[in-house]
Amino acid sequence: MFDPYQLCEYVIEPALKDINMYSKGAEQLLLGTACVESRLGTYIKQIRGPAMGIFQIEPNTHTDLWKNYIAYRSDLKLRLTNMVPKSQWRTDQRRPHHFALINSLSYSTAMARLVYRRHPDAMPQEDDWEGMAAFWKKAYNTYLGAGTEEKFMKSLEVCGVR
User: Fold this and answer.
1) How many other CB atoms are found less than 10 A from the CB of residue 106?
2) What's the domain count of the chain?
3) Which pTM value belongs to this model?
4) Which domain holds residue 71?
C-alpha cells in the first residue's frame, strides 16, 4: 500500500498538473478512488476481472477514452503521450497498451481523472468526502458496479486518509 501523502505529493498532484486538471478537490477524489479501488495500490490487477492499475480502470474504458475523448483533444493527447514510454504503445500507435495503466502511475492517474471529467455532474468541492463517495459511485463505479458509498468512506479509514 502506498503512503497516501506521498502518493498525492509525488504522483497525483504532478500528474494532474501535467494535464492541466489540478485542484485540491480532484487530488482528494483520486486519492479516495485509489483507496476504494485498490487499497492504495495493494492490488494492481483485479483478481477476477479485467481492471488494471491503482485506479482499476477496465481496458474497455481505457479504449473508449482514447477513441471518443482524447482523440479530439490534441493538447491532452500530447500530454498523455509524454507520460508513457514508447515501449508501452500498441503497435498501431493510436494509444498506449492497457498495461500502461499498471506500469505508469502518472498515466493511470491522468486516465482516472478523465473518467470523472467526462461525467456531466460537477466534481465535489475539496474536503467533501461524502460528496466524493457519491460522485465516485455515480461517475466511476456506476450503478453496474458492486461498490457503495459506504465502502468508499470505509476505505478512507483503512488507508489512513481520514
Assistant:
1) 19
2) 1
3) 0.95
4) 4-158
